[in-house]
Amino acid sequence: MDVRAIILTGLAPEENEASADSSFSGVPFSLLPVLGRPLLHRIADRLNDAGIDSISVLNAASGELPLVQEARRADLKWRDVSSEQMWRAAEEQFDELVQSGAEMVLVMRLGAYAEVEIDPLLQFHLDKRNHVTQVAASDGPLDFFVLSASRRNDAAFLFRNKLAKTRVPAPPFVTAGYVNSLRNAGDLRRLVQDAFALKTAIQPLGKEVRPGIWVANGAKIHRSVRMVAPCYIGAFSKIRAGALITRGSAIEHHAVVDCGTVVEASTLLPLSCLGPGLDLTYSVVGSRRIASVKYGAELEVEDEALVSSVPSTSMLRTLSNAAGLLAFVPRQVVRGFSGSKARKTQVASECPSGNFDPGAAAHSVGQDRPALTSGVVARARE
Known about the structure:
The chain is α/β, with parallel strands linked by helices. The protein is built from eight helices and 32 strands. The strands form seven sheets. The protein has a nine-stranded mixed sheet with strand order 14-15-18-21-24-27-28-29-31. The N and C termini lie far apart (65 Å).
């Protein structure tokens, strides 16, 4: 049987979902990497394993964002569309798949992360002779549907109502798989913790160097760094001298944790740099923003000594490293001429003594959320 899939991503929450926050700094949670791989890729792989190798992705998020570009993959038929054109594009995509021979089409709007049993779902759809079958979890329905190719009117009705209702009522398929609503940073952190606890099918991308500690290729970890299981260090990330990574923390690819900083029960998103001498607890950091899980609030951090961004391309990263080396070498030459030597007890030379202003966090996102200062989320230790 020819089964194909349409995945919708990057859509803003509807009016009745005003409390939901399905993105972080403009990037949908479903496109963010979790333990080394974007969630979209993990979902696509589950579909491939079920024999569905034709997957169309309609994306409404900004294609200029590095993490959105990273989510593209050669085997995914990717198309960027505006939010206003999304539903029309989905209807056209459904018609195109049917004309090319599809007998059933899976349609899912990525928001929640759900590990749905595909084969039982398709069999349920056939046994019940449904025009459209919706997937439901124990706590409510999901934006996940099976459509029969011969029911174009039902498909058009579903898309024109933004997946909110079906033309003909039908019994839902209740999944027993793992489901995470992914509405906020707290849900993202819970997904990471559940993956470490083997409650999901998500596996860290890397090598388990010690029980509960995974390190991906290219990661650079100073010998003085302490890592407490479970934790994850992503590809080409840098963990500098004296840092501590503990309690289910995830450092994603090309991220930097500076000297003496503690990361506890937190996620550092790709291409992000956490400054020296900080305590980061129960938070998600990326794109120069901090989201506190404990306080349910976000901050934009203005002081680059606290949180900054790593260049998104390898060329820019090389130039940045070269600039840092050029600034470092003259200091060492002067030190050599002056005869001064570093004491053995000093921290490695990679750790600067840079000054930073802990009060330079501003711009709370929500007016109705509790006030949050940088001292709550990431405080400088004396």
